[in-house]
């Protein structure tokens, strides 16, 4: 099985040769192989802007996505509170995923239970085109903290494949209990060293 991300990653570096850390600058892009029917297709990450929130709210309502992730969609008030917190928190790296110019999802790194955890969510219309794999490859280039942790539902084959392609390895499993945000179910835990 292919274990590494098979794409070249181009970085738009600042004048000092570093990755820009903030601002709306587009700073990382890659072209996944399975979007190669359009050679100009790229996946980019940029900072999340307030203007993205209505679209991100719609994306997180998708029932099939919530089933895969083992989550319950937020209502509008809860969503707004969550994103107000994320956008004000300098310890969170929250990125919009732009595919061929369109906002197609989010990917983030945040502290959970004292460790650095990654999570991502892609518009169902864009599934299966390498977007999540490309976005994670970009994020782990930007976020250099290690280890990085990730948790997926044990039956979320797509997410597990994304993690494995980007070099994460499964370290444990557990049974997740129902919470206001999550449904109960079997979980698998991954680490990138
Ligand atoms: C999981 C998710 C992020 C995958 O996004 P994506 O852009 O479709 O992922 P990619 O195209 O980069 O790669 C998915 C890989 O998993 C495979 N895959 C996708 N769905 C699959 C499934 N149901 N069963 C088996 N493999 C699957 C794909 O074939 C691909 O592997 P390949 O490149 O070897 O063919 C997306 O479905 C999603 O956002 N789901 C809802 C939210 C969620 O589950 N987030 C993750 C929480 S841990």
Order of helices and strands: EEEHHHEEEHEHEE
The CATH homologous superfamily is called: Gcn5-related N-acetyltransferase (GNAT)
Please give the CATH architecture.
Answer: 3-Layer(aba) Sandwich
Strand order of the largest sheet: 1-2-3-4-5-6-7-9-8
Backbone shape? globular
Q: Explain this structure to me?
A:
It is built from five helices and nine strands. By secondary structure, the chain is an alpha+beta fold. The chain has one domain: 3-Layer(aba) Sandwich (Aminopeptidase). The radius of gyration is 16 Å and the shape is globular. It binds coenzyme A (COA). Coenzyme A binds next to helix 2, strand 6, helix 4 and helix 5. Coenzyme A binds at residues 65, 68-69, 119-122, 127-133, 152, 156-159, 161-162.
Concise synopsis of the structure shown:
The protein is of the alpha+beta class and 193 residues long. It has helices at 53-59, 63-69, 76-88, 131-142, 157-165, and strands spanning 9-11, 28-30, 43-47, 93-99, 102-112, 115-122, 148-153, 169-176, 185-192. It has one domain (9-148): 3-Layer(aba) Sandwich (Aminopeptidase), CATH 3.40.630.
